[in-house]
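Extended Data, record TetR/AcrR family transcriptional regulator
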Amino acid sequence: MPKLVDHEERRNHIAEATWRVILNQGMKGATVRNIAREAGLSLGALRHYFSTQDELLVFAMKLVKDRATERIQQIAMSDLPPKDKILNIMLELVPLDENKMAEMEVWFAFTFYTRHKNDVLDAQHDGIYAGMKKLIDYMDHHHMLRNNLDKEIETEKLYALIDGIAIHALLEPHRVNKERIKAVLSQHLDSICAEG
């Protein structure tokens, strides 16, 4: 009897192989041939799932985003106090562990690779700005923000903080470590929240 193949699992396996190739060889090394080899598949088998390199790259990056979104949704649905919930969501968006470090490195490599390719996934619309806007709106709705804050400016500041600290954590992981990231994000959250 032929072995049944879980096609979604196989597509995810190929996407994860793509991440490993990008981490080890950069975007230039992310050829269909190298990815097939990393995934342990023939070129024909890989092309059965992804007909073009761009289609494969888009799926691989979407999987990064989907996994982060799933983790964030679990936090959003938790019973944590509102401020802890917000902090934990922000911490999901920065590289605090080896897996998130790899996801972030792959995401930034992909972002720089696609910035001049308009027909590929627009990595600039990664959902982080929209997520920061939702966090600010959530804090406003729960009367957590200090009075007279400009919500648009605070959204932009939070977006810049998350992106900036993620890049610094990638470039200087010994200096911008887990404890420092938590301290910076906690202090920023304290600075925009009303006391009490």
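Summary. The first helix runs from residue 7 to 25.
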